[in-house]
Amino acid sequence: MMRIENEDLLADFQQQYQVQALFSSGECPEMELFAFQKGDILLEEGMPSKHLFFLVAGAVKIATYSTTGKVLQLSHLEAFQVIGEMAVLWEREATANVQATKPGYCLALSLEKHRQQLLNDVVFLRYVCHRLSEKMTDHNQVFSHTIFEPLENRLAALILQRAANQVVRPVLTEWAELLCTSYRHLLRSLSALCAEGAIEKQGRQYRVKDEAMLGKIASGEGRAEPPVKQ
Q1: C-alpha distances out from residue 79 to 1, 13, 16, 44, 54, Å
Q2: Does domain 150-219 fall into CATH 1.10.1060.10?
Q3: CATH says 2-146 is which class?
Q4: Per the confidence metrics, is the pTM higher than 0.70?
Q5: In this structure, what are the phi and psi dihedrals at residue 36, rounded to the nearest 5 degrees?
C-alpha cells in the first residue's frame, strides 16, 4: 500500500461518500489518499498504526490466526467502511490482519495530528459506535453459524449473498477461510450442491440453478447431503 498524490480523486471520494458529514464541523479534516493492490496488508495483527483508514474502493478481509496457524476469517468489507476504529483509534495494537482482496483506495487520517480531535468529536464517535454495533452483530452471527450450522447450510447462504445475476466465482482459498473449513471439504460441499441440482459448475464459476432449493438449504430446511467428515 502506498500514499498517492491525487487531490481530485481524493475530493471525489470525499464527495461520493459525504465524508464531511461524519464530523461535527461539517468539514473533512486533512486526509491522505492511499492505493493498495490485492494481497497488501493495511493493518497487521499485533502492530500499531499511524492512520485511521476509510475504505472507499476495493475490498478487504479481516482475519486472525489460531495458535496452530489456522486462519480464521472474521469478516469481509467493501466500501464504505472505517478500518481500525476498534484498536488504533485508542492507541492499541491491531487485533487482526486487514488484507486487501481486491485493488482499491483508502482515505487516511493521521492519528498523530487528529486523534484528540476525533476522540472529542461527538458526531464522529456516534458514527463509530453505530458501525461497531453493526460489526459486532455480524461477527456474532458468523460465529454462531460457524458453530451450529453445517457447512452446506453456510455455503448455500454465502452463494446467495455473493451471487450476481445468479452467478458466483468463488476464490476457494478465501471461501475456505471464511467458512472455517478445509479447501477439500469446501470442494466436496460444492460438488454436493451441484449433485443436488441447486447450483451448476461452469468452468471456474457456479450458476444458481434452483434458488428456492438453495434458500432452503441455507435456512436449514433442506440439506444437499449428510456432512462429510474433514
Answers
A1: 17, 11, 11, 20, 8
A2: no
A3: mainly beta
A4: no
A5: -140, 155
